[in-house]
Amino acid sequence: MFGGKTREFLRRISIEEAFEKKVQLFKHPFDNRYSPGCVCSHDGVQKPAIVVASAVEIQQRLDPGARIIGISEVQFYDGAIVNLCYDLANTGKTVIAEGLFRDFRGELFSFAGDKDKPIKRNISDLIVIADLTVYLYPKCKHELEEGVFCEKEAPFIQRVFNGTKNPVPYDFDVVHPGAREYIPYCRQHYKFYPENRHLRL
């Protein structure tokens, strides 16, 4: 979402590699932008990654000698990723996971792999077991006048119909990798949905 999360993720991985620690990177096949076999930032930084679709597959592909486990776009996995990260951290490995906190509806991102499960977990289940959580936000892209943008910190992402500024309906699928369909907004310019879970409490 142009907030620099993938760039920061790769920067932290590079720091660990500089200390000659064995690293394994994993990415989900949903993230098919740029290079399919690499974790890539919007500005072209990239590193090779193992493409797997579930927490079980990550566990199956783990190298026992790896000390650093990097998981990109963690929200695409199933809720079992929470237990896997917890177990890996408790065995002394460093787990660096990056992903989205909110979906385009402004709600906590539910793990995509839990879509058809009776019990769904969301990103907060991972955050509460983390040693450290870093939040990165882009700048608000609301155009105040031609060529002049708001540029306040933008914690919300509006999904719009491609080529317009019209928000998609609330019930659109939240799993839709892309860039042009998403616009970062500050609270003032983000359009909340009447269906928002937190507004219905």
Short description:
The chain has 201 residues and is an alpha/beta fold. It has helices at residues 5-18, 55-61, 80-90, 123-127; strands at 23-27, 38-40, 46-48, 50-51, 68-71, 94-97, 143-145, 148-149, 156-159, 182-185. It is globular.
Principal-axis shape: globular
* Average pLDDT over all residues: 92
User: Which stretches are low in confidence, meaning pLDDT under 50 for 5 or more residues running?
Assistant: none
Instruction: State the helical fraction.
Output: 10-25%
Q: Report the structural category.
A: alpha/beta
Series of H and E elements:
HEEEEHEHEHEEEE
Strand order of the largest sheet: 4-1-5-6
Please describe what this structure looks like.
The protein is of the alpha/beta class and about 200 residues long. Helix content is about 20%, strand content about 15%. It contains four helices and ten strands. The protein has helices spanning about 5-20, 55-60, 80-90, 125, and strands spanning about 25, 40, 45-50, 50, 70, 95, 145, 150, 155-160, 180-185. The protein has a four-stranded parallel sheet, sandwiched between helices. Strands 2-3 form a two-stranded antiparallel sheet. Helix 3 (about 80-90) links the parallel strand 5 and strand 6 (about 95). The radius of gyration is 17 Å and the shape is globular. The protein starts with a helix and ends in a 16-residue tail after the last strand.
